[in-house]
Write a structure and sequence with these properties.
Layout (H helix, E strand, L loop, with lengths): L1 E7 L4 H5 L10 H8 L5 E11 L2 E9 L4 H6 L2 H17 L4 E4 L11 H5 L5 E2 L2 H18 L8 E5 L4 H10 L5 E5 L3 H14 L3 E4 L3 H6 L3 E4 L8 E2 L8 E4 L6 E2 L9 E4 L2 E3 L4 E5 L8 E3 H11 L15 H12 L3 E3 L2
Parallel strand pairs: 1-3, 1-4, 4-5, 6-7, 6-9, 7-8, 9-11, 10-12, 11-13
Antiparallel strand pairs: 2-3, 2-15, 14-16, 14-17
Length: 333
């Protein structure tokens, strides 16, 4: 039996409170402080049966840190916790480990973690980018938009998902706006895009200004707070937010003139049974980063598939072919 590991963590303190009855009567400030000194642990295990002759087991290992703690605490402390979680997965027999949530964002996007692990590690960002792109491209057809004449905004383009989306969409769109916290990353990304295609690439410092004229908006930031105002989206725009937590301020139901896509969700064609507390997703639905780890396990490709910011664009097509072969489907809503 092939075994995978997957690293998860709570997004906010309410996730911690709701995970255990005793936590509901514990002061939140105490819980949050305690997390810093808590050790990673096995949250649950998953059993998958892709076929009569094949079974896969997965172990979900929790890193007891909130999203904002992962960004604000000493990087070495955070990385050491994630590496400890990977070691737990290793000890349980995992042949590959996926990095969920901000575990794939801390530091150098998984490279240090992979270098200090005895089994291959993947961030899952290639399949996440593929899922975002497929959802957006399919929705443009549904809405009758011509990407060649559309303006695209990638919010958080400095990361691996945003970078992959920007480079791939340069084959379709004529104008792309890029935003990120680090301008130097955007300058390098702009260079790489222009080597692929002669299109107009604009580096924008203001996120809300970038989306006002955009027909397509892809949001891939690692911000713990919402940064985009619901009222700033262009009427008729298609918006895909793959960030966790979501980065839009306001009620999306108030903008019936904008199409919002829940990015990065995958439906798998076979049952998955969780033993333990589960991970809070509907049956047979999972995040693309998790699905990438499972796909690599199915393929018996125990390798460092997605790491760092500059993932090879050819891997998008490769993970797409693999997912189709196993019947994985991208969800749009």
């Amino acid at each position: 039996m092939n075994i995978f590991g997957f690293i998860i963590h709570p997004l906010n303190i309410d996730d911690v409170v709701n995970s255990c009855k005793i936590f509901r009567i514990t002061p939140k400030w105490f819980l949050e402080r305690s997390l810093k000194w808590s050790k990673p642990f096995k949250v649950c295990e998953a059993h998958l049966t892709p076929s009569i002759d094949e079974k896969i087991k997965g172990y979900f290992i929790g890193v007891p840190l909130l999203l904002r703690q992962m960004l604000s605490l000493d990087e070495r402390l955070v990385l050491n916790k994630i590496i400890s979680a990977v070691r737990i997965a290793e000890s349980l027999g995992a042949k590959i480990v996926g990095l969920g949530g901000f575990a794939s964002v801390v530091g150098d996007k998984g490279i240090t973690i992979a270098n200090r692990s005895r089994v291959p590690v993947t961030s899952g960002n290639t399949y996440t980018a593929y899922a975002v792109l497929k959802a957006v491209l399919d929705m443009t057809k549904v809405k009758g938009k011509n990407l060649k004449w559309s303006k695209v905004a990638i919010i958080g383009a400095g990361g691996s998902i945003g970078s992959l989306c920007a480079r791939k969409l340069s084959f379709y769109a004529s104008k792309i706006f890029l935003t990120a916290r680090h301008r130097e990353k955007l300058e390098k990304l702009k260079e790489s895009i222009l080597k692929l295609n002669s299109i107009e690439v604009i580096i924008e410092d203001d996120n809300n200004r970038a989306i006002r004229d955009a027909d397509i908006v892809i949001i891939t930031t690692s911000s713990p707070q919402a940064i985009l105002n619901i009222n700033d989206f262009k009427s008729g725009a298609i918006v895909c937010d793959v960030s966790l937590p979501k980065n839009i301020i306001g009620d999306i139901d108030s903008r019936k003139d904008v199409t919002f896509i829940e990015g990065g969700l995958i439906k798998i064609p076979f049952d998955i049974k969780y033993l333990g507390i589960g991970i809070g997703l509907p049956q047979n639905i999972m995040y693309a980063c998790m699905a990438e780890t499972i796909l690599l396990c199915l393929e018996k490709r125990f390798e460092k598939f997605s790491l760092g910011d500059n993932i090879n664009i050819e891997k998008l097509e490769e993970i797409g072919r693999i997912s189709k072969r196993y019947g994985f489907e991208v969800m749009y809503q």
